[in-house]
Write a structure and sequence with these properties.
Distance between the termini: 27 Å
Number of helices: 14
Strand order of the largest sheet: 12-11-8-13-16-17-19-20
Shape: globular
Helix content: 25-40%
Number of strands: 21
Radius of gyration: 24 Å
Bound molecules: cytidine-5'-monophosphate
Largest sheet: 8 strands, mixed
Strand content: 15-25%
Structural class: alpha/beta
Length: 398
């Protein structure tokens, strides 16, 4: 819930601005007080009257509106909020934010605020993929700006691709996460998730059946408890949850690098199904059927990312948790794995095809700690995520 929360909503100039009218309502449904700001370009898409009527609040439009300055200066306006949301955030708005410009009311508020900022980008796919926007995205992420979306889909301009503004429900979820004051507030937690892809040649790779669903559910649950979550994910079937810092990687070695960059953290949870082996020298060209025999793939062992972090000295997170996907004798293997890797807990799950767990929506786990093995009943992966997040929160408190 967002009771008593004050959200400064900056509506930028894009066709997705119509969704921001609904966003105002949905935030209010959750108990939030929405103070709207409409940019000049935003006014071309939605009217000040509809925005102020829905928000039941005056809509701020102009930096040089003296009445506003007399009532409330722009500095005060930017600070009286608990969170600043920009939806839609256009390519132009992101560019000005990244460059540190303050040439209208919206960008001045964004420069002046001392509160967290969440943006919902919306633009044509070419603009989203443009090198300038990529640079701006990186810069804004480094500045601590939170992102929700964009989504991939068909666009008002008739093209298809990434750039559609996130749905209203997603933005509300990201707002709730950003304002969460749960038991994990102030904690930084790393979660790895999904499979890794190890290239054989430019079109083929070694992979596994991990969907990333359990890692995603756990990351979402940790963020909902207020943690700052760094989510390092391989090419998974499910998208990263809202409200986490998603780092996308392909290979085990890229995952290892991203994990090292995320440190230090309070807890590190390794839910990724990392490929054990990679092809020593992946071919630059597609391997061909030559008729002169079969290709021979030489394999090398991938770095064990979990063991590396669990056994690091000074920078070791307080809590290190591994997963063990087994098809038989789970408790014995999971217990041995805990010892071998040097982690605190192992969450074991039976991934025999008959269980339908790999790729399915349910999980039946065994949590192995110093105290022994605890069998949890079969439940949804979301519920496993929520329960594990609570256990992690208890462990970090103790
Ligand atoms: O050794 P095994 O793959 O069974 O161990 C599983 C656990 O170790 C999981 O937590 C997985 O994320 C982690 N792991 C890793 N790096 C690897 C292999 C596994 O972090 N190269």
């Amino acid at each position: 819930m967002l009771a008593q929360k004050r959200i400064l909503l900056i509506i930028g100039g894009g066709i997705a601005a119509y969704k921001s009218l609904d966003l105002i309502r949905r935030l209010q449904d959750r108990g939030a007080h929405v103070v709207p700001v409409l940019t000049r370009a935003g006014e071309q898409f939605v009217t000040p009257l509809s925005v102020s009527a829905l928000a039941a609040h005056k809509v701020y439009r102009d930096l040089f509106d003296l009445t506003d300055e007399a009532e409330m200066g722009h500095i005060q306006l930017s600070r009286s909020a608990d969170l600043v949301v920009v939806a839609p955030a256009t390519a132009d708005m992101m560019g000005r934010m990244a460059a540190g410009l303050a040439n209208d009311l919206a960008t001045t508020l964004l420069m002046a605020t001392d509160k967290p900022v969440l943006i919902a980008p919306a633009m044509n796919v070419r603009m989203w993929e443009h090198p300038a926007t990529r640079r701006n995205r990186e810069r804004l992420a480094q500045d601590g700006i939170g992102f929700v979306g964009p989504e991939t889909g068909s666009m008002a301009c008739g093209e298809y691709g990434a750039g559609r503004m996130a749905e209203v429900a997603q933005i509300v979820e990201a707002v709730e996460t950003a304002l969460s004051t749960g038991p994990l507030a102030g904690r930084r937690i790393l979660v790895t998730s999904g499979p890794t892809h190890e290239p054989i040649d430019p079109v083929r790779y070694i992979a596994n059946r991990s969907s990333g669903a359990q890692g995603s559910a756990l990351a979402r649950a940790l963020a909902a408890l207020g943690a700052e979550v760094v989510f390092v994910t391989g090419p998974a079937d499910v998208p990263p949850p809202e409200g986490v810092q998603a780092v996308r990687v392909e290979t085990a070695r890229e995952m290892e690098q991203a994990v090292q960059q995320a440190l230090p953290v309070d807890a590190a949870i390794f839910a990724a199904a990392v490929a054990d082996w990679r092809v020593v020298s992946a071919s630059e060209q597609k391997l061909k059927k030559t008729g002169t025999g079969l290709p021979v793939l030489e394999l090398a062992e991938n770095p064990d990312i979990l063991a590396g972090v669990a056994q690091m000295g000074e920078r070791r997170p307080r809590l290190v948790v591994g997963f063990a996907a087994e098809t038989d004798d789970m408790v014995r293997y999971a217990t041995a794995k805990r010892e071998r890797k040097g982690c605190d807990w192992i969450v074991g799950n039976d991934v025999s095809p008959a269980t339908g767990i790999m790729g399915g929506s349910e999980n039946a786990v065994v949590v192995v700690t110093t105290e022994g093995a605890e069998h949890w009943p079969r439940m949804s992966k979301d519920e496993v995520g929520r329960r594990l997040a609570l256990r992690i929160s208890d462990a970090l408190r103790g």
